[in-house]
Amino acid sequence: MGVLAFTFLFVTALSIDSFGIGCVLGMRKISLSLRGILTIAFLSGAGFMVSSYMGALLLPFIPAEYAERLGALTLIGIGFYFLYQYFRKPDQSQKKEPWSQPARVLNDPVAADVDQSGGIKGKEVWLLGAALSLDTLGAGISGAFMGVEPFVTALWIVIITFFMLYAGILSGAKLSEKAEGISIVPAVLLITIGIIKLT
User: Contact at 8 Å (CB) between 123 and 38?
Assistant: First the structure.
């Protein structure tokens, strides 16, 4: 697989979840400003770039012939974790506040509207951004192992996350409840990319 094709698939896998979350917000008529969408996109890109540079610091301690394989295995692991998160049934009796468990927002984007005002604003934007950037943290380290260029990839993540989230919000009402099933796509893509890089 060429570098360009790999980067495109990699960024798509990390950004497409934003479309599903945007759809859910659109369906529930929960507003999010363009400035808020841009902030979330930047958080996702920054999360990837920081973790990618952290991964680069580990590279000198990993034999070159194992680095790419380790990165691919990490991607597969992240993909299976996302599948687990998607299929597991939430424990309603132990539901925590989203401030202490940002990952909960990925399964229930409406939880980002903490004050139930019908709009995500202020600190809630950062909460949703933190939840979405969780996807990019582990992927940034594995991307560094596989030779992904941190800054360019992070920039593409910002751009595509912005458009995915914006398009999701706009089309949420039309796609109805089927939109929530999009959340499974990133997991499948990450596993597929990891397997391709292993072979």
Answer: no
